[in-house]
Amino acid sequence: MGAACAFLWVHAAMAQNPKTDGWMLSPGVVGTMVLLAIVLFIGALIIAAKVSRLLEQNKEKQAATSETSISEEERIKRKLAAQYKLRGDELGGTATAFDDKALIAGATSEPNNPLVEEKLYSRTRLEVPKQLQQLVIWYLGAATFWLIFGTAVGEYLGLKFIWPDLDEVAWLSFGRLRPVHTNTVFWGWASMAMIGLAYFVIARTSVTKIHSYKTGWWAFGLINLSVIVGNILLMAGINNGGGEYREYIWPAMLPFALGLILTFRNFYATVKRRKIPEIYVSNWYLLASLVWTIVLTIIGYLPFYQGGMGETIVQGYYMHMGVGMWFMTFTLGLIYYYLPSSLNKPIYSYSLGVLAFWTQMLFYTLIGTHHFIYSPLPWWLQTVAIVFSMGMFIPVIAGTTNFLMTMRGSWSAIGKSYVLPFFLVGVIFYFVGSSQGSFQAFRFTQNIWHFTDFNVAHSHMTMYGIICFILWACIYALLPKMTGREPSQLLVGAHFWLAFIGLFAYTVSLMAGGSVKGIAWMNGVSFIDTVIATRGYWTWRAVGGTLMFVSHCIFAWNFYIMVHNPLPPVASQVRKPIPTEQ
Amino acid sequence: MINFHKDHATLVNVALMGFVLLSTGVAVAPSFNMQDNNGPLPDMPVMTAQERRGLDVYVAEGCIACHTQQVRNIEMDKTWGTRPSIPSDYYYSKQRPDIWRNTPSLLGSERTGPDLTNVGVRKGSEAWQMLHLYNPRLVEKYSIMPRYGWLFREVDSTAVKEGDVTLAVSAENLSHPGKVVIATERAKDLVAYMISLKQAPLPEGLAPEDFIGSRSDGGAMAASAASGATAAVDGGRVFTSVCAACHQPDGKGLPGAFPALAGAELVNEKDPLKMVDIVLGGYDGLPQYGPMPSQAHLSDEEIAAVINYVRSNFGNDAPPTDAETVKTQRAVIAPETVQR
């Protein structure tokens, strides 16, 4: 694999004059096809296993019935055996049964929901300080609100591709609303959920209480303020120049930056007074992610070097690091705690986690310019970005291996849990989505896919397939343990499958539509004809988007069930508590 | 001895320093370099105050979400310009407008709509730009661009003042029949900016960078214009990409805005010279229609091909012209575009 990758990127970096005739054989396209094949192969394997089991059972049944050559004596014996019925008192005699634990009366052959297999319930209760519990629930509550709002906007935008005349209101026009969607799900939903979940991790893995709850509440207010003010300004037509994910003007983004600084101080002070000598690897990711994002926001907004093409370099750097250093790094930190704790076993390799950490910093930071391949930016900068995009395989493979090896041996637990499937999807997309992004950075694949809907598919595969699924997994893992309230398993299942199928419809249609468009452009088809050719794919995108949005509404209901009126912990079920006093 | 596992201060500081160092090398330092080593091309017109206000509207309405402004140095982007974009092209437009807002991110990352680097050349007609903003589907049936009605006002025909730009919107497309649509100042600014978007010529003696890659089937029209290719030009294709926006794919035009070519007297004249002159020099002779901008950016072969296409389609029937005629007329009508 490593050698193949090395070959692929050397080949691509040297190919300065790509021919378009053999586009099917270009390394980026081949790589993407391989990734798709892996997903298809796993799917086919699961289906094949199921089918072969069915056939096997059928065969056994037939074999059992076709047996004929038996003696008369044997036949009578069997007949009698088949007719034998238990009297019911063979073990207990005729004495009256005591059933004060309702073991017999409570048994049923009809589970609560007849549609799906029943999953395990969350048996453990964690005694969490009241203040921490409230802080986490409010962060996650705000996140859920922004998820619904942000994806409602996204859904509406998706419909505008099919019905451009849906409205003629300046505040709802596509150009103004698009950044409202992206910024809301970034800074509102994902960021709030991440920080809320991290508060628990920081306290738990440092075996101490949070340094200052008050600081936590200040950051909560500041970040929400940023999203509210920023969105209103965007809809009013006041933005920062259209650079993606920094569309909020600096006065609107300032509260967000302050919120991050406060959060960092709070986390750092908490880790500093940990009761154990080691810093758990989750906290490496969480602390570093905050530091990197604070630096990133400052670099992204300082004006001194952003005239002319300077702005473009910073734009590529900012938009990629926003995703890579904030959402991805932070979420990895969350996985390193919530995945092993859900499986009730340690992480497979601490060292792999550390390797992934440093390579994440080294490789990710250098690849921003791959958003501007063939642009007027310096050729060397583009090449550096492409080469290090391939370097991204190291942290991605290290991380994926670590998570899958942690799951190994517990595969049966996945079917029995309503949390682990979210983790599995998140981890698979971590590998597929990130690798696909690296292949997309090749110069040749940029010809086909850049500027097309393929980009939109990629960002949903990663921000949704990785980040959202992992965040949901963590939320479903944490909240029942904290509040004692479990969501309906049927509704968690509905959330999972609608989001998963919706995401597939969304990304596959846009990947196909984007490829069709890009190849048509390469062949000189007139622009409007490529718009017409994409309409069917946009319809499928809207279908997928609708499924995703419905799943978010179900999630919001599940969230409400998990947090309203929390139960007091039952002493016998409580695990080692987080100390409430220092 | 450094121990990241137990020393939180070292861990955080090393992560911070590493990131700052890498960021400086890959973002801040190159940005300073690109910002400071840049200047306008000698033949580049300075941006007017109105065009700058138009750029503000362009940014505020989020046009950047769907429109790029960069001609990449690859074959497929020849459709959007005659040469790959260079940093100097953005000298006037990519400047910080005020203390509140950053430099516009004009290069863009999505091409849901066409690239606009050279739109002032392709779609230089103010009347077309206005109608297209008011309702894109009036001029391009399959467009999915939003309508920008809030950049226009409907007024009584008596309220139209001297200097107002009125739009030729037919009655069934008005929300209040009998009214007249006029452009607001913001619409006028935006259209002025759009029409100003033209690739400036490189200084004499400086050859543009080559486009990378090659297509086997000939190439876009701009390609043949740049290289003077003699391959047969498809007049229908030129018509679709250049003329159809105003005169419509069926050649019937838009009543009140753009004249019909189908059955037009001028098109069917035996002598093609007048038509050649109009394509080369533009035309403003019909008071009921908007002015037509010059199309001299097309090559002689392309102009001859598209004229022949129009004269033999849409029910028209007139004798053809040739590239030689166009070449002769170009020297008279548009001498500044004669190939050096």
Give the tags.
heterodimer; A: 582 residues; mainly alpha; Cytochrome C Oxidase, Chain A; globular; disordered N terminus; B: 340 residues; Cytochrome Bc1 Complex, Chain D, domain 2; three-stranded antiparallel β-sheet; 3 strands
Rg of chain B is 24 Å
Structural class of the helix and strand makeup of chain A?
mainly alpha
Tell me, rounded to a whole number, the average pLDDT of chain B: 88
Largest β sheet strand count, sense and barrel closure of chain B: 3 strands, antiparallel
Largest interface: A-B, 94 and 88 residues
How far apart the termini of chain B lie comes to: 70 Å
CATH architecture of chain A: Up-down Bundle
The mean pLDDT of chain A is 89
> How would you classify the helix and strand content of chain B by structural class?
mainly alpha
Order of helices and strands of chain B: HHHHHEEEHHHHHH
Q: What amount of the residues of chain B lies in strands?
A: under 5%
Whole-number total of structural domains of chain A = 1
Give the number of helices of chain A.
18
Percent range of helical residues of chain A: over 70%
CATH level 3 topology of the domain at 221-333 in chain B: Cytochrome Bc1 Complex, Chain D, domain 2
